[in-house]
Amino acid sequence: MAVGIHRKTIAYIDKQAIIHNVQQEMKRLDKDTVLYAVVKADGYGHGAIEVAKAAKKGGASGFCVAILDEALELREAGFTEPILILGLVDVKYVELLVLNKFSVTVGSLDWLEKANEIIRVNEYNEKLYVHIALDTGMGRIGIRTKEELQEIERWLDGNERICFEGVFTHFATADSPDQKQFEKQVSKFNILVESLHRKPPFVHTANSATALWHKSSSSNLIRFGIAMYGLNPSGGVLSEPYQLTPAMKISSEVNYVKQMQEGDTIGYGATYSASQGEWVGTVPIGYGDGWPRGLQGQDVLVDGKRCEIIGRVCMDQCMIRLPYEVEEGSEVILVGQSQEQLITLQEIADHLNTIHYEITCGLTARIPRRYDNTSIANSDKKTNIF
Ligand SMILES: Cc1ncc(COP(=O)(O)O)c(C=O)c1O
Fold it and tell me: Are residues 181 and 275 in the same domain?
């Protein structure tokens, strides 16, 4: 996909915020607990490589990704730290797992047997590192009974090709004030783990929400995702034990300004009619950039003032109602601060009746990610971007 470097629609990523968020979490961890930065889905849309660099500076000692290609991207970028792949990988790619020293999630004995056979036949020198997933109530992947887990443990015991490095689960409701489901999962996890004769080096349960709000839950590896990006996993329902600093801001410009006559219409479907003398600006961002059509009616900021998106969001552009005539080229803050006003990713998510994870992950490659404040395209304009 072409990246829009000749247009002023940009996602600014504040790496200091990522470093800060990781450092804040690191301060709370026991000394034998490690933090792996979750950088799947291109670092939740923030850019996996730059996020991984910042997370490492903050103290992350490893990374989690969802798919093999994301793990390869990190290795190719030169990261030598442990990388845990949280999703299932087709067993035919065992060679890539072994040669790149990836740790991989496993959910069945059948997968292990096939992997073992491939490693035996090919006589790889390196071991395969596996983390056994336990399904304690997420219903996604993982072993569900003691019997299955013990069978896997017996099979792995003494295996020279496959190292039983970890066992883990994922909570469905760690971000909820209602603890019932969470506690049910904790208790199922404990029963399963206690049925092991020997615990592997890593026993882990903690995503961001678990790390923030269930510190007592047994985990010597934190899979730190959304909170690293400065976003509250509960969408603000639970308050943060320390201040999370959002890393992403999105800005653009007003690239066309006009005054409307009474009844003039805006956008596909002509869903908006202007009143006499209304000033309307066009902003070069649309659903082709991951700025969804459902954002009709959401505000953006111009000169510290809230301006509503009027008419339907197009693929590449949307229109906003201006408080007065502004110069073409005026900065538009879609997510971030302008003077006294702030638009958060949570506000965008609420407007769309979704979660902020989906907004950042959904921003397409067409929007460039900028990591250096000094390279802000509109830097002659002094709107407070961060
Ligand atoms: C297994 C697993 N662990 C950890 C995470 C990170 O979660 P969060 O971003 O809520 O911290 C995810 C994200 O979906 C996940 O699937």
Answer: no
Give the rounded distance of the alpha carbon of 126 from its chain centre: 31
Which two structure tokens, joined as six digits, stand for 50?
């730059």
Examine the domain organization and report whether 185 and 260 are in the same domain.
Answer: no
What range does the domain containing 293 cover?
248-375
Round to whole Å and give the CA distance between 171 and 173: 6
Examine the domain organization and report whether 182 and 315 are in the same domain.
no
Total domains, the chain: 2
Classify residue 10: in a domain, yes or no: no
Q: What is the pLDDT of residues 136-189, one digit of tens each?
A: 999 999 999 999 999 999 999 999 999 999 999 999 999 999 999 999 999 999
- Give the separation between CA 319 and CA 283, rounded to whole angstroms: 6
What are the pLDDT digits (tens) for 5-47?
Answer: 999 999 999 999 999 999 999 999 999 999 999 999 999 999 9
Residue nearest to atom 13 of ligand 1 (CA): 225
Question: Which residues make beta-bridge pairs with 164?
Answer: 130
Per the DSSP assignment, residues forming a β-bridge with 322 are 279
CA of 83 to the centre of ligand 1 (A): 14
Joined together, the tokens standing for residue 126 give: 């390196």
Task: Choose one of 104, 170, 205, 214 to mutate for the ligand 1 pocket test, by most ligand atoms within 8 angstroms of C-beta.
Answer: 170
Q: Which of 8, 15, 40, 53 is catalytic?
A: 40
